[in-house]
Amino acid sequence: MVQLENVGFVRKRPGGEQAVILDGVSFCACPSNITGIVGPSGSGKSTLIRLINRLDDPSTGTISLNGDDISTVDPLLLRRKVAMVLQKPFMFEGTVLSNLQRPFLYRNLLPPPAGSDEVVRVISLVRLSPDMLEREARSLSGGEQQRVNLARALISHPEVLLLDEPTSALDRPATDSLATTLREICCREQLVIIIVTHDLRLAERAADYLIYLEQGMIIEEGGVSEMLAVPRTVALQRFLAKPDKEEE
User: How far apart are CA 23 and CA 217, in angstroms?
Assistant: First the structure.
């Protein structure tokens, strides 16, 4: 379980001014559930998941993983438990298999071969054909690269999976397919999954719980279907009428 309690983040700007990016954010994300975070550009969505991965540390409040304050955990150890998939998939030179083996090389471990349980498991989870393992990773389509990116994050058996705008470069069929894949992964692996997205279609198809973030604060949260069908706040009503399509 990932729990945030009164989390705030202040960024210093040139000239000494301070900008409040997050203010008093509290929520819980549980295993076997997908939490979607939506909101306009600049609302603090991407900053929020960076804090959970300790790419930044909060200015106030605490973030805990299974009851342990993550500020007390070595960042490298934490990132084995909390994996992140970035907006634009990055492929190393070489084959799909060599990309999947990278996390083991970073930890000076023997990389698993193509037929190993680790590799077979993750390519099955992300719906990649075994025939693709020997293809050049950089020659793949955007949707295929995102699936390789996802498989690389899953191969180390994380407890938490963070996704930052995972469908920003994908067309609608690829987005819908990824949403289905994420639901299957969440159930089979019993992961905590948190998705930051501007894509309301992805949120509706993938998430169980939805958080609407604006100006660094949670304005509304609840079940996805209810929030999208009957928004309680003017802010969410306005956002649903014209969601912000820009990247944060």
Answer: 6
Report which of 74, 106, 91 is spatially closest to residue 151, judged by C-alpha positions: 91
φ, ψ for residue 190, nearest 5 deg: 55, 50
CB contact at 8 A, 63 and 3: yes
Amino acid at 66: N
Instruction: Enter the tokens of residue 93.
Output: 């030179």
Q: Is the pTM of this model over 0.85?
A: yes
Structural domain contains residue 216 = yes
> Is there a domain that residue 229 lies in?
yes
For strand 160-164 and strand 82-85, is the pairing parallel, antiparallel, or unpaired?
Answer: parallel
Alpha helices in the chain (DSSP H): 45-52, 75-81, 96-106, 117-125, 142-154, 172-189, 200-206, 224-229, 234-241
Q: What is the CATH number of the domain that holds 26?
A: 3.40.50.300
- ∠ CA(225), CA(185), CA(180), 5° rounding? 50
Say if strands 18-29 and 60-65 run parallel, antiparallel, or are unpaired.
Answer: unpaired
226 Cβ contact partners less than 8 Å away, ≥ 6 residues apart: none
User: Mind listing the pLDDT tens digit for each residue in 131-170?
Assistant: 999 999 999 998 899 999 999 999 999 999 999 999 887 8
Residue-wise pLDDT for 194-217, tens only, equals: 999 988 999 999 999 999 999 999
18 token code pair: 């301070």
Number of domains, the chain = 1
In angstroms, the CA 228 to CA 244 distance is 15
CA distance 84 to 150: 9
Question: Under 8 Å CB-to-CB from 243, ≥6 apart: which residues?
Answer: 38, 40, 198, 200
Q: Residue 18 domain-assigned?
A: yes
